[in-house]
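Q: Give me the 3D complex with S-adenosylmethionine.
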Amino acid sequence: MRPLPSRPRNTVLHGDCTRIMPRLAPASVDFILTDPPYLCRYQDRSGRRVANDDNARWLKPASAEMFRLLKPDSLAISFYGWHQADLFIAAWREAGFRLAGHLVFAKPYASSTRFLEHRHEQAYLLAKGDPAVPPAPIGDVLDWRYTGNRLHPTEKPLSILEPLIRTFCPAGGLVLDPFCGSGSTLVAATKHGRDFLGIELEYRHWRTARSQVAEDRAA
Ligand SMILES: C[S@@+](CC[C@H](N)C(=O)[O-])C[C@H]1O[C@@H](n2cnc3c(N)ncnc32)[C@H](O)[C@@H]1O
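A: Here is the predicted complex, encoded as structure tokens.
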């Protein structure tokens, strides 16, 4: 394994976050905003899949590491798959997190239809210790904007990530996304003067994330 600084900043690391996070310094991150696999065997219309979306082996170790890396009295937000809400909640609670809020991202279209039209994504606000209430709390229902998923099969819109970072990460703080995909969280962090640390398992997505943050920082 290549040596790693214990407090890397403004970089995207390539590899399995359950192996990389244990090498980072404890209590070194101000806010976590992440969008892990939903555990739903996702496949888009063109056949693209998400790595580790077919197993939960990573969920407990990743949640425990997220808790360890977060500073005391700080917050994390994790998207999750409603199909496996029980597994996500159990892993977060076992890691030490307290459920502090729930966010719904309302879509103006149905991303798929079965018994219902699927018109929302969802995330939990997770607390480590007793974080301060933000000076200007935001609503827990935010409007979703379709990204076109050109950079990643499950690309998140910057328009929903930016208010979360502005509200929950202190100015100049470090935002961690251990499942960073195309790097949308990292770009949102730089746009608001926060530092970032991304981790991505798949080489092609890691390359995308690296070029997205480089492009944004050059702009
Ligand atoms: C839901 S996607 C994130 C999409 C991202 N929010 C975006 O806007 O592009 C989850 C990502 O986690 C990555 N992943 C899965 N298992 C991982 C692991 N153990 N360590 C790091 N990344 C992982 C997948 O390759 C995928 O890109």
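A quick observation: Residues 203-218 form the longest helix (16 residues).
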